[in-house]
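Researcher: Let's do a round of design. I'm pasting the C-alpha cells now; please hold your answer until I've finished.
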C-alpha cells in the first residue's frame, strides 16, 4: 500500500482539526479561487467531510478584473464538482474606496457571507496560509498600524451576522499547498495579480521576505506568524479587561455616549487608548487611527480647556467629569 504524500497528510490533518467540532450533517463552504491554496483546501475538505457526514459547497467569486476571469471561475467550479463539492460561481462588480484589491476583498466576503446565511452553513473555510499571515504582519509593521494589525488573521472568528470563519491552513506553508496539488494531480491556477509588483503584498512576498531570510536566516515567516499568535493572545486578554471596565465607566448620552474621565485617567495608556477606540467603534462604527486616539486621550491627560475634536462620524469633547462622544452633526 503506497504511503500518503506528506503534503497531503499535513493539509488533511489541518482540515480535520478545523472540522472536528462541527455537527454531523451540517454544511460548510470553501472559498475557492482555483489557486493552489484554496484548491488544496477544497480537496482536503472534500475528503475529510465525507468521513464526517458534512455537506460541502464551493463558492467561487468572479471579480471580473481580468479578461479570462469567467473562464477561470468556471474551471474552478468544474474542479469542485469533480471533487464532489456543490459548486457556485458568483459574478460581482468591484468598486469602492481603497483600490481594487480592497474592493475585491470586500465584495468576496459579502458573497461568502450571503452564501453562508442562505445555506445556513456551519462555517466558511478560507485558504490563507502561514505565508499570508507573515506577509500581513510585515505589512502591518511597515505601516505602523499597531498591535491590532500585527495580530494578523485569526484561525477562527465569528462576525456580527453569526458567520463562523475558519482558516485551517494558517499554520501551513504555501509550498505545501502546491505540493498537495502536485501529489493529487490538481491543476492550480496562478493568479497574475500574485506576480504584479504594483501590489505591496507582492513586493513583500517576492522581495522583502526573501531578503530577510537571506540576511537573518531561515524561519522568518514562522517567527512573524508566532508574533501574530502571541499578540492575538494579549489582545484577547486586554479585550476581556476592557469589557469588564467599560460596564462601570460608560453611560449613554444624548446622540452619543460618554466615559468617565477619572476612570480613564486611572488606567494605563494602553488600556485607556483601547477603551477610547472600542467605545467609538461600537457606538459609531468608526476605527480611529493612532493619531486620532492619542488626541482624544489628551482630553483626559492633558486638558487645558481645548474644544471638541472632530473625528470620522463623531466628535469628542470634555464635559465636566466625562468624555462625551456625539454623532457628527449633533
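Researcher: That's everything. Go ahead.
Model: Designed sequence:
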Amino acid at each position: 500500500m503506497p504511503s500518503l504524500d506528506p503534503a497531503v497528510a499535513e493539509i488533511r490533518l489541518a482540515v480535520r482539526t478545523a472540522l472536528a467540532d462541527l455537527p454531523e450533517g451540517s454544511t460548510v463552504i470553501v472559498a475557492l479561487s482555483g489557486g493552489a491554496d484554496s484548491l488544496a483546501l477544497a480537496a482536503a475538505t472534500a475528503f475529510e467531510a465525507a468521513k464526517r457526514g458534512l455537506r460541502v459547497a464551493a463558492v467561487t467569486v468572479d471579480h471580473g478584473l481580468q479578461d479570462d476571469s469567467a473562464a477561470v471561475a468556471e474551471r474552478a467550479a468544474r474542479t469542485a464538482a469533480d471533487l464532489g463539492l456543490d459548486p457556485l460561481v458568483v459574478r460581482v462588480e468591484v468598486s469602492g474606496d481603497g483600490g481594487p484589491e480592497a474592493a475585491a476583498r470586500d465584495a468576496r466576503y459579502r458573497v461568502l457571507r450571503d452564501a453562508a446565511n442562505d445555506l445556513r452553513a456551519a462555517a466558511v473555510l478560507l485558504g490563507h496560509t502561514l505565508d499570508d499571515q507573515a506577509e500581513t504582519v510585515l505589512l502591518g509593521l511597515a505601516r505602523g498600524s499597531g498591535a491590532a494589525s500585527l495580530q494578523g488573521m485569526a484561525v477562527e472568528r465569528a462576525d456580527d451576522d453569526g458567520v463562523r470563519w475558519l482558516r485551517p491552513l494558517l499554520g501551513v506553508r504555501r509550498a505545501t499547498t502546491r505540493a498537495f496539488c502536485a501529489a493529487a494531480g490538481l491543476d492550480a491556477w496562478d493568479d497574475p495579480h500574485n506576480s504584479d509588483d504594483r501590489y505591496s503584498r507582492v513586493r513583500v512576498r517576492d522581495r522583502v521576505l526573501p531578503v530577510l531570510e537571506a540576511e537573518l536566516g531561515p524561519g522568518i515567516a514562522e517567527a512573524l506568524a508566532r508574533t501574530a499568535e502571541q499578540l492575538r493572545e494579549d489582545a484577547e486578554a486586554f479585550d476581556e479587561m476592557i469589557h469588564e471596565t467599560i460596564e462601570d465607566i460608560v453611560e449613554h448620552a444624548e446622540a452619543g455616549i460618554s466615559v468617565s474621565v477619572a476612570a480613564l485617567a486611572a488606567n494605563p495608556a494602553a488600556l485607556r487608548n483601547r477603551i477610547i477606540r472600542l467605545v467609538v467603534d461600537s457606538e459609531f462604527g468608526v476605527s480611529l487611527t493612532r493619531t486620532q486616539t492619542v488626541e482624544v486621550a489628551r482630553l483626559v491627560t492633558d486638558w487645558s480647556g481645548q474644544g471638541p475634536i472632530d473625528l470620522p462620524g463623531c466628535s469628542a469633547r470634555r464635559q465636566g467629569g466625562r468624555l462625551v462622544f456625539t454623532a457628527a452633526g449633533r
